[in-house]
Specification:
By secondary structure, the protein is of the alpha/beta class. It folds into 2 domains: 2-221, Spore Coat Polysaccharide Biosynthesis Protein SpsA, Chain A; 223-292. The protein is built from 10 helices and 8 strands. An 8-stranded mixed β-sheet has the order 7-5-6-4-1-2-3-8, sandwiched between helices. Helix 5 (127-144) packs parallel to helix 8 (206-220) and helix 9 (223-252) runs antiparallel to helix 10. The protein is elongated. The model has no long low-confidence stretch (mean pLDDT 77).
Length: 304
């Protein structure tokens, strides 16, 4: 059995086309499948349209969340309800082609992969978004030291044992591609060209993308804390040389006039301290969220 998890949020204009393309793609693989559509607290007619899809085909199931918990939480909710031997993940904006799931499934079955990624070799999106995404993937893949992270997103397929390990990771600040790579197992790729969104508006704003990127870096890298350490060391070294310069200047009679050197030193040390406190504050906030142990999502209803 093959399961497909699709989170959607305010996608009323895309639901019918999404339903048609997904149904054709899944039926081309085999009749034994389920599609779990996760409504992430939509405020438009998305849920109503999803219910219409469910009436047309009972294999399309609906998980309706009590409010908008975010993209990563919505995926987590759907994955918890998946029953298949293989489980695929697909964004609801149709930028990732559902027709590629069959190739992922065949690669997993024939070559023994537990996880198969959709790897974007080309992106037909705005230049600014492509540039920021490319920079993030380059930085994150180097900082996290996780393999198979370049130009991959949520679009993927996992075996049941990989999903079981994946769901055992219960942190609240979630970056699913990183968690998926962390569990290991045999992993492979299917390359594709990612088109731009055809209808509707992108739900991942620049702010949300930056927030997701920071969650990924804070969760999988020690670099932010090291920035505090390195900044402090640089400050100490600069002040040490400044003190030597001032002492030599006093002995030689050409000491700098005024307090500019002192003011610059104060501002520099103050900036280092503020940056360090801000970074440590981010870690403290994330630790606080973990200790609260609030649920990642809350389900309003499940239509099976």
């Amino acid at each position: 059995m093959l399961s497909l998890v699709i989170p959607v949020y305010n996608e009323e204009v895309l639901i019918q086309e999404l339903f048609s393309r997904v149904k054709i793609a899944m039926e081309s693989i085999g009749p034994d499948f389920e599609v779990i559509m996760v409504d992430d607290g939509s405020t438009d007619a998305t849920l109503k349209n999803l219910e219409s899809c469910h009436e047309q085909d009972k294999r399309f199931k609906i998980v309706s969340l009590s409010r908008n918990f975010g993209h990563q939480a919505a995926y987590t909710a759907g994955l918890n309800y998946a029953k298949g031997d293989f489980i695929a993940m697909l964004d609801g904006d149709l930028q990732d082609p559902p027709e590629l799931i069959g190739e992922m499934y065949q690669k997993a079955c024939n070559e023994g992969f537990d996880i198969v990624y959709g790897r974007r070799i080309k992106r037909h999106e705005h230049f600014s978004k492509k540039l920021l995404t490319r920079i993030f993937h380059l930085v994150f893949s180097r900082l996290s030291r996780l393999e198979n992270m370049k130009q991959v997103g949520n679009f993927s397929l996992m075996s049941k044992r990989a999903l079981h390990s994946f769901l055992s990771l219960q942190e609240k600040n979630r970056y699913l591609p990183g968690l998926r790579a962390f569990v290991g197992f045999k992993q492979g790729y299917v390359d594709y060209s990612r088109p731009d969104r055809m209808k509707g508006e992108a739900k991942m704003s620049l702010y949300k993308l930056v927030t997701l990127g920071l969650d990924a870096i804070f969760s999988f890298s020690s670099l932010p804390v090291k920035i505090c350490l390195y900044s402090g060391l640089i400050g100490v070294i600069l002040i040490f040389f400044a003190l030597i310069y001032i002492l030599i200047g006093k002995l030689g009679g050409y000491a700098p006039v005024g307090w500019s050197s002192i003011i610059l030193s104060v501002y520099f040390i103050g900036s280092v301290q503020l940056v360090s406190i801000g970074i440590l504050g981010e870690y403290v906030y994330r630790i606080y969220k973990e200790t609260q142990n609030r649920p990642i999502f809350i389900v309003n209803k499940f239509i099976e």
